[in-house]
């Protein structure tokens, strides 16, 4: 066989292989349509919602409180999810068997662990801020400068935790009898102990954050219950008049809030609690599946394309469950924060 025939044979073989992989990509994307619809919906809702959040806090509200910096930081991180990570995941589902050869695979390894870890860590100072506001109202409170500084510390801590894990994702061969593909997963060149260490770091971060949130909001709940009991006892003996003012001068003014102020405090506390709760509930399935993949030495992810329709959908949504918080957070802000809701609604009102 002379050189032109060899070249023609190789070209024919490569074309046949590419066509085969393209067909497998198509078949897998059809099987994954529910997961793609889920990601597209979260991306659209999250992009619109978090864009509104950023616009409201950066443009509409000139003076914002320290907790608003945390909300703004979360909105920016969620936007990164909606603009970079979710589109990549959709591309991943439609190019399952060839994505390992794309540079997008390296982008995933840089952004996905970083964004997930930063979302987890930033919830901690946000919860502590609320604890000091409710349980230690007379102590020195966090300022706007302190909020910005704590966000910066969260960013640096995330770099330390997720930095060593940037290169664990990469091309990973996938073989199934009639074809050889390349998917984007934990790279074949990644040392097993390295991948275990990275997942362990993420798991430990998640556990520490979850325990901190549970403890902090338990203390906040206890304080709220005590305050309500104290307020009811004062009302029962007539220390507070019908206008929620103080009838006697012997009661400390700073220890009793007006009804409107108390409702606003409860709403803000509920908002931050719901943000934390939704993150924990949506991040947990993702982390469990990743831990199972590592414990099975990557067998699950390399054979996930063989899963039946419902199992395949459950797997692909479960491993990407943490994206839900990127769409739900703006809804939580709107429900719990009247000032934000009015500012957001004013954007869409036509000028008369």
Topology:
Blueprint: H1 3-31, H2 33-60, H3 66-94, H4 104-135, H5 144-162, E1 169-175, E2 180-186, H6 192-236, H7 259-295, H8 299-303, H9 309-318, H10 324-336, H11 338-348
Antiparallel strand pairs: 1-2
Helix pairs in contact: 2-3, 2-9, 2-10, 3-4, 3-5, 3-10, 4-5, 4-6, 4-7, 6-7, 7-10, 10-11
By CATH, the superfamily comes out as Rhodopsin 7-helix transmembrane proteins
- What share of the residues does DSSP label as strand, in percent? under 5%
Q: Note the main sheet.
A: 2 strands, antiparallel
Radius of gyration: 26 Å
Straight-line distance between termini: 81 Å
- The DSSP helix count reads 11
What would you say the CATH architecture is? Answer: Up-down Bundle
If you consult CATH, what is the topology? Rhopdopsin 7-helix transmembrane proteins
What pattern of helices and strands is seen along the backbone? HHHHHEEHHHHHH
Kindly give the count of domains.
Answer: 1
- The helix fraction, in percent, is over 70%
Mean pLDDT value: 77
Overall CATH class:
Mainly Alpha
**Structural class, from helix and strand content?**
mainly alpha
Order of adjacent strands in the largest pleated sheet: 1-2
Low-confidence stretches: 7-14, 240-257
Give a description of the structure.
- There is one protein chain.
- The chain is elongated.
- α2 crosses α10.
- The protein starts with a helix and ends with a helix.
- It has eleven helices and two strands.
- A hairpin with a 4-residue loop joins β1 and β2.
- It is mainly alpha-helical and 352 residues long.
